[in-house]
Amino acid sequence: MNKREFKDKVYIELSKAVKALANPHRLEIIDLLAQGQFTVEQIANNTGLSVANASQHLQNLKNAKLVQINRKGNFINYSLASEQIYNALICVRELGMTFNAEVKKVISDFRNGQQEDMRAIDAETLVTMLENDEVILLDVRPEEEYSRGHIHRALSTPIDKLGNSLKKIPKRKMLVAYCRGPFCVYADEAVAILTQKGYNAVRLEEGYPEWALKGYPVEHI
Amino acid sequence: MNKREFKDKVYIELSKAVKALANPHRLEIIDLLAQGQFTVEQIANNTGLSVANASQHLQNLKNAKLVQINRKGNFINYSLASEQIYNALICVRELGMTFNAEVKKVISDFRNGQQEDMRAIDAETLVTMLENDEVILLDVRPEEEYSRGHIHRALSTPIDKLGNSLKKIPKRKMLVAYCRGPFCVYADEAVAILTQKGYNAVRLEEGYPEWALKGYPVEHI
DNA sequence: CATCTATTCTATTTATTTATTGAATAGACA
DNA sequence: TGTCTATTCAATAAATAAATAGAATAGATG
């Protein structure tokens, strides 16, 4: 094997891993799987794909060793093969958000369209606020995802049942809502509703997976 | 814009950045550009591409804002748009090397093919050794790349003129050779030659760009 | 201004990727 | 054992990406 053959082989193999990530649907699937395991149908529903199409993309990710399966009864659950995969997604997200102005534009357009000034606080600030007991932290993801793991001291208030949860929440404290990550809009929706109801609410910049990856305190049941 | 449209747009834009990296030749080009700026022809020569083809790939990278141009006389020099791009490459490299066993295999096959036990030391070890004046550090990249920037206290001993350089190098000290990065074979070739001539030589795990990115001492002229 | 040359563009062919549909499969459970 | 069902496979069509070769361009230099 000469130098050129060696380099060709190495870069071709390397590009296979990148190609597995080089598709909008697969990026969305990885982002979703960072919350935990999901069946093919759940993945299809969450991403707007047909089941067959979702399955194909999952095969693609599985071949690249980025996801793994785990059979439970009649269902097959897909999950990330390792935390490092999410790390790569964060890397790629940084790249996209830094060098593709369009990404930033789409996000700010969407948030402005919601007619809310979506201020966000970061993980470090939240840690201090939680220590001082200044805030109530709301996990607005579906309950199932909360139960798999959530930020220490967060309450489960799924976005679609937010109305019910409000009764228990006093208005005098500041609320912080978080969800799956920067491209998940549950927290935005929650802040919009809460603000409209007279609460003082902001979103957390980080989603649950990033929070956990940074080593901040989490709880599993 | 509804939720689905928003997500579709975000992930499509995000995938554009990834698609720019999802090609073996473009990965190799990025790896090369981490050494500094190169003309289209230099890039073509270094990667085994035709000039027209290299130019096309460069346009692709330019559209994704990953590389920038800088005109000098009759030539156009391409360089990475920011250090962060190389960061993304490292991320992707980690992903590939961790989850694609084939990458590791190709590398070890190639090194074994050279009939040398290619031991390597890491940056931290080297720093200590340099402080204790225990080693001579050799930059075996082309002289031009050395002159753009190199590791503090390294000598320029380009691989194709290594024979000439040897006269000045005493045999009693250990030699450490480094080059462009993990997929560059100059350091391997150098270690093979040096060992064969009776020197005690090893390669540095990191290439120059990684060394610099980690904040270890460098020198520019 | 004319020429030279590094680079880019255009057109074409070939290869790869994606979505869709309907059929096939593999495992669970009665 | 047979049925049920979640998932995958296979075939096709449509879209996108890549390599090649030759023409075009833009800027430098005399």
Within CATH, the superfamily of the largest domain in chain A carries the name Rhodanese-like domain
| Helical/strand content category of chain A | alpha/beta
Determine Rg of chain A (CA atoms, Å). Answer: 19 Å
Name of the level-1 CATH class of the largest domain in chain A:
Alpha Beta
In terms of quaternary structure, what is this?
Answer: homodimer
Largest sheet of chain A: 5 strands, parallel
- The helix/strand order of chain A is HHEHHEEHHEHEHEEHEHEHE
In whole angstroms, the N-to-C terminal distance of chain A is: 53 Å
Keywords (chains A, B): DNA-binding, Transcription, Transcription regulation, Transferase
Domain Rhodanese (chains A, B): 131-220
GO molecular function, one term (chains A, B): DNA-binding transcription factor activity
Protein name (chains A, B): Rhodanese-related sulfurtransferase
Protein architecture, described:
Chains A, B: Residues 131-220 form the Rhodanese domain. Chains A, B: One of its GO terms (molecular function) is DNA-binding transcription factor activity. Chains A, B: InterPro entries: ArsR-like_HTH (IPR011991), HTH_ArsR_DNA-bd_dom (IPR001845), Metal_resp_trans_reg (IPR051011), Rhodanese-like_dom (IPR001763), Rhodanese-like_dom_sf (IPR036873), WH-like_DNA-bd_sf (IPR036388), WH_DNA-bd_sf (IPR036390). Chains A, B: It comes from Flavobacterium nitrogenifigens. Chains A, B: Residues 6-100 form the HTH arsR-type domain. The structure is a homodimer of 221-residue chains. By secondary structure, chain A is of the alpha/beta class. Chain A folds into two domains: 3-86, Winged helix-like DNA-binding domain superfamily/Winged helix DNA-binding domain (Arc Repressor Mutant, subunit A, Orthogonal Bundle); 104-219, Rhodanese-like domain (Oxidized Rhodanese, domain 1), CATH 3.40.250.10. Chain A has eleven helices and ten strands. Chain A has helices at residues 3-21, 24-33, 40-47, 51-63, 83-99, 101-113, 123-131, 143-148, 162-166, 186-196, 208-213, and strands at 38-39, 67-72, 75-80, 120-121, 135-139, 150-151, 155-156, 174-178, 201-204, 218-219. In chain A, strands 4-9-8-5-7 form a five-stranded parallel β-sheet. In chain A, strand 8 (174-178), helix 10 (186-196) and strand 9 (201-204) form a beta-alpha-beta unit. At the A-B interface, helix 1, helix 2, helix 5 and helix 6 of A face helix 1, helix 2, helix 5 and helix 6 of B. Chain B binds a DNA duplex (30 and 30 nucleotides) through residues 19, 23, 25, 39-41, 49-53, 55-60, 71, 73-76.
